[in-house]
Amino acid sequence: MKIDEIKQTLQWIFEEFGTIVQIIAKTNLKAKGQAFIVYENVESAIRAIDEVNGFEIFEKPMVLDFARSKSDATVLKEAGEKELEEYKKRRQAEKERRQAEEAAEAQKRLKRPATTTASEAAGLAGRPTKASRGAGLKNTSGTTASVIPDEYLPPNKILFLREIPDSMDQDGLTALFSQFPGFQEVRMVPGRKGIAFVEYDTDAQATTAKEATSTVPVGEGGRFIRITYQRQ
Fold first, then answer.
1. Closest residue by Cα to residue 187 from 214, 154, 160, 211
2. Taking burial as the number of CB atoms within 10 A of a residue's CB, which of 39, 91, 136, 203 is the most buried?
3. Contacts of 3 (CB under 8 A, 6+ apart)
């Protein structure tokens, strides 16, 4: 279903509880199935949660709760454009910090040796293998999350850089990536070596820079930087 159709349906359901300032719905995998309804006041949101929670839409019951943070529209209304820009910067910095931590944790897991104790080996010996339990059967336990590999992430105007040589600093990265149209800035991650973000005006401009620089050797020893799109 198209985003516009989803928004129209949500508008029809929620407008009776108060004035709606904004409806936000996204198509990316991580946010799929989520939407945000921004009301003019808290009282309207409370009424909507009380009345609509569990209401079935698109053959699924809705689960409603308050958002963890204020919407851009709310910040703009309460504090003005200047504070909104600061709010966006803080949110982006927090998002990048979390992504850097996730990347570091993923690297640790890859480096962690797979060990099996003697008792575990004995216990596993008599168990059937996965294949013997019925080839082709889907896992319905719901314990396996669907995660898109970094290499297949959809285009984003922000590039995520990893494995940056120690000899390559912010000035060096800026010199490299500022050659391409739409360049905004290079953001290093405090306390994290070898990681940075590069932002462009548009997804297309970021894609051009990504494709052009992925095979450019940099720093001492001529190493390649691993460049992917930032996760949505």
1. 160
2. 39
3. 25, 26, 27
